[in-house]
Amino acid sequence: xxxxxxxxxxxxxxxxxxxxxxxxxxxxxxxxxxxxxxxxxxxxxxxxxxxxxxxxxxxxxxxxxxxxxxxxxxxxxxxxxxxxxxxxxxxxxxxxxxxxxxxxxxxxxxxxxxxxxxxxxxxxxxxxxxxxxxxxxxxxxxxxxxxxxxxxxxxxxxxxxxxxxxxxxxxxxxxxxxxxxxxxxxxxxxxxxxxxxxxxxxxxxxxxxxxxxxxxxxxxxxxxxxxxxxxxxxxxxxxxxxxxxxxxxxxxxxxxxxxxxxxxxxxxxxxxxxxxxxxxxxxxxxxxxxxxxxxxxxxxxxxxxxxxxxxxxxxxxxxxxxxxxxxxxxxxxxxxxxxxx
Length: 341
Known about the structure:
Blueprint: E1 35-40, H1 48-63, E2 68-73, H2 84-90, E3 95-96, H3 100-103, H4 122-130, H5 132-143, E4 146-156, E5 158-161, E6 176-178, H6 183-191, E7 195-197, H7 204-209, E8 215-218, H8 220-225, E9 234-237, E10 242-250, H9 251-256, H10 259-294, E11 298-301, H11 304-325, H12 328-331, H13 334-340
Parallel strand pairs: 1-2, 1-3, 6-7, 6-8, 9-11
Antiparallel strand pairs: 4-10, 5-8, 5-9
Organism: Mesobacillus boroniphilus
Keywords: Signal, Transport
Protein name: C4-dicarboxylate ABC transporter
């Protein structure tokens, strides 16, 4: 299988394939004569994923001379959080980029990416997905009818809430947290004794505004792009979980595309992915600076000692995951591989 990842070593060479020349007057073709790819996502246009989606659409149009049109629908315009994967499998849309946590509802093994404190940085995520575990996860996606075109990243998640600084595990007790619909994330917050809601991401601001939830977890860029910080008083910089996206098409749709069009999509995703990786870091750095400058949230940086307390509180999740999926996913985590040497 071919997957263009967010790191150079995982790019697969396509030099053996030659892109066929595409006619130069494709802009004049009717919609029925062109290939239209409807790309639906739920985040804002000024996020890493939102910007990458627009850049991808532009590149595909350029490389195909207008024969392929990627129509991008951001902010859950077509389908809400939790609806887009089913819409893809029905063929109502042709492309999505859901968070790995969303994919785990269809391929549960992907929960490994959302284990708490599994990765120290994005390089460790890349290393993990380059190995045997990554290949297994990608193969499982194909078995379920998806074609993984590539992976984009956002960054690491932080905790925000309106009640108090979240320093110790017991500080979560009784707080109402919005989480993504993921079993492994649900278990994390249950271990912390929080009360959970799995609302759409685009509903978070209103829920906070109406005091229907106390807090949420997200990356800096997502917090700022949705104005979540204006409704929260405290943020704990915990880096407890990674947020990345898998760019997916329905495998049946992919298999029916002409080979030269597949090549164009692969080339475009490779270019965009390298750019998106840098942009994600830049946007998160800028968003953190905005959070510091606004004075609207009190920021606490989790110390190493505090982090160890959180990890200890969440340790049962690893055992339950191992009991269900086997030990390989845990053993192959970079931190565990280093401990073996």
